[in-house]
């Protein structure tokens, strides 16, 4: 219930003003967001690399309302890739983009998002890395998968995200479990109607297991995007069962969440990638993290009273 309310709140501009304007919010946000600037993000990358953890960087921004903002998102990613170039991290530092930040929801938005994300994919290829297209609410899935198919023609390493919660994702997983295809499987962070998605946790978990099995027994490069110990255990079991080599799959976890587990998996020889968000527009991302876990809300509320 609380989670659903927070997901609805994550799309309310009025509430955004209240939450963002509260100075103490910052301390809680810092737990999940690497900072507001590119140097902040690069400092977080450096710290994670010292623990042998790869990264995917997300310049925060979504649901933009003008072409100028979409162009600004593209430019922020080009600056990010410029900043990564001298570090020569190759695929150890990739980037994740939300097409809504590239104008996907504007009129003519599918073409605009493709036009603006293409140079980002080109810049990523030039520094030896890749782009992953985050998945947003279910109305965007067809457009995002079509952009993926376009980008993969010239940049075959471009990654996709599938949300186990959506009924369609098992079929999408089958389509995408092919050689060279990089797919991050997540449970899904958006409030979706019953008509298109599983809404009970047990159903979502069962769907995640089915999709994970499809991806790990397929020919692609699966990326298990989860903090759930049961799903991580299943991925490890599938690695054992399929005899996958350590360079043919990875675990992905969010910055600041289960960091001990991130370090443990990396120390055990698995590729672990932390999803590192940075930037000033952290509201939507932050609210989804609160929605996932009631304890995060308690932590947030406590910080409001213990200035
Ligand atoms: P859950 O069952 O939600 O959680 C399992 C355990 O993980 C919890 O008991 C808790 O210990 C820990 N945990 C989970 N969430 C939190 C949290 N917020 N704070 C603290 N502890 C927590 N969703 C999308 O819809 N589109 C995307 O593109 C997308 N990209 C993602 C990329 C990565 C790398 C990851 C890890 C997640 C991404 N998500 C995305 C979010 C995802 O859909 C889930 O909402 C989120 O990962 C929580 O699900 P879970 O698998 O961790 O399992």
TrEMBL record:
What Pfam family does this protein match (any one)? Pro_dh
Q: In which pathway does it act?
A: Amino-acid degradation; L-proline degradation into L-glutamate; L-glutamate from L-proline: step 1/2
| Reaction(s) catalysed (UniProt annotation) | L-proline + a quinone = (S)-1-pyrroline-5-carboxylate + a quinol + H(+)
Q: Which cofactor does it need?
A: FAD
Q: Which InterPro entries would you find in this protein's record? A: FAD-linked_oxidoreductase-like, PRODH_bac_arc, Proline_DH_dom, Proline_oxidase
Q: Does the keyword Nucleotide-binding apply?
A: yes
| Record-listed E.C. numbers | 1.5.5.2
Q: Write out the entry's keywords from A to Z.
A: FAD, Flavoprotein, Nucleotide-binding, Oxidoreductase, Proline metabolism
Proline dehydrogenase domain sequence ranges: 42-299
Does the record bear Oxidoreductase in its keywords? yes
Name used for this protein in its record? proline dehydrogenase
Show the taxonomic lineage. Answer: Bacteria, Bacillati, Actinomycetota, Actinomycetes, Geodermatophilales
